Structures are given as C-alpha cells and as structure tokens.
Amino acid sequence: MDSLTSLGQALGKIFLLPKPPQFDYAGVVRTCSKVTTTEPVSYCPSSGKIGTDVSALAARGGPMTGAGEPLSAVVDGDYNAFAMFISRYVLAVQQDRKLTLTGASTAGLRTACLTGVVTTKLSEPSSDPHLSANDLDEAVSGLLADGLVAADVDGKVVAGGFQRLEAFRMGVLDGESACLTHYR
Asked: pLDDT, tens digit, for every residue of 136-170?
C-alpha cells in the first residue's frame, strides 16, 4: 500500500486539482449513484473517491492468463496494476476539466491517453516513484489483454486493442493537450 500512497502523491503533483480525489484502500466504491463500479479500482464522481481493492489490484500486477504459454505476448507486472490505479485518478482530472466520464470512445480513450501522460511523467529521472525498464511493456500488455486502463467510469472499453494503444501512445508522446483535444 506504500507504493499506492507514493503513486497517489505523485499524481497530485502531476495534475494539480483544486479538489483532489480521496483514496480509500478498503475496497472499491460500491455505493455511487449512476455509476457502474469497476474492479479492482473504482472512481465515484459524486463523492470524489477512488476506492481500491488492494489485494485484487496486487493480483492484477501478478501473472496474467496466458503469460506462461509458449510464444505468449502477455507481459505481466506491477505497472499493469499501477496503470489501472492511474486510470481511475485521471477520471477525476477529467471531471475537474468538466469533461464527460462516460463513453468508451471518448472518456475511455481519453483515460488511456491521460494515463500515457502520467507514464511519461513517471519516466522522468526526478520522478518518485520512477518507472523501471519493463513498465511500458506491462502497461501495453494490460491495454491489449482487457483494456481496463482505457475504460470509462462505468468500465466500458472500446473493442479494438489498437485504438486503446493509439490513445495511450498519444498521451505518452504528445501530452495532455493532445488528449483533451482529440478525445472530446
């Protein structure tokens, strides 16, 4: 949980919000009106709370289905889990920017894009926490496996893995303004 606390502090520095979300590590937010809870991390716009099932999130950072198969393209690891946590935080950023939080092809892809922005910031030498060598591979693998990093507030995801990767790539390379302009 220390690593999630450290990541939460870094997110607060990357995206300065007048009213940052509150973190709850006791589980996902189950009582949020008009929102379908996502697992293992959820964001509730009405309460401004990010709820995390830490055990389930840790499992997401472990071996994924298909990882042990010969010639598997699945790459597992902790940044796959951290990217999911980041993706729920950037929903709060979108709410602050008065953007819609629903719609897989808008809010979902914008979420993946903004997660890419954070990924770039975490790769800077002075970043704490700082990405390790395989973290980008882990994020990409998660985007292809189930795409939850590219989910809107209700967990809806575009079907095409390439679309999810393209959104993430845009965030990594082009930054926040590109994300906010392209995914309206």
From this structure: 888 998 899 889 999 999 999 999 999 999 999 99
Give 154's contacts (C-beta < 8 A, 6+ positions apart): 35, 36, 38, 102
Neighbours of 165 (CB within 10 A): 18
Nearest partner of 40 among 116, 132, 131, 151, judged by Cα? 151
Closest CA relative to residue 53, chosen from 37, 76, 72, 67: 37
The answer to whether 148 and 158 have CB atoms below 8 angstroms apart is no
Burial pattern 31-66, b for ≥16 Cβ within 10 A else e, equals: ebeebebbbbbbbbbebebbbbbbeebeebbeebee
For 64-95, how does the pLDDT look when each residue is reduced to its tens digit (9 = 90+)? 555 555 544 455 678 989 999 999 999 999 99
Indicate whether this model's pTM tops 0.90: yes
Omega of the bond leading into 129 within 30 degrees of 0 (cis): yes
Q: Return d(Cα 115, Cα 61) in angstroms, integer.
A: 16
Per-residue burial over 72-82, b if 16 or more Cβ lie within 10 Å, else e, is eebbbbbbbbb
Quote the tokens at residue 49: 């709370």
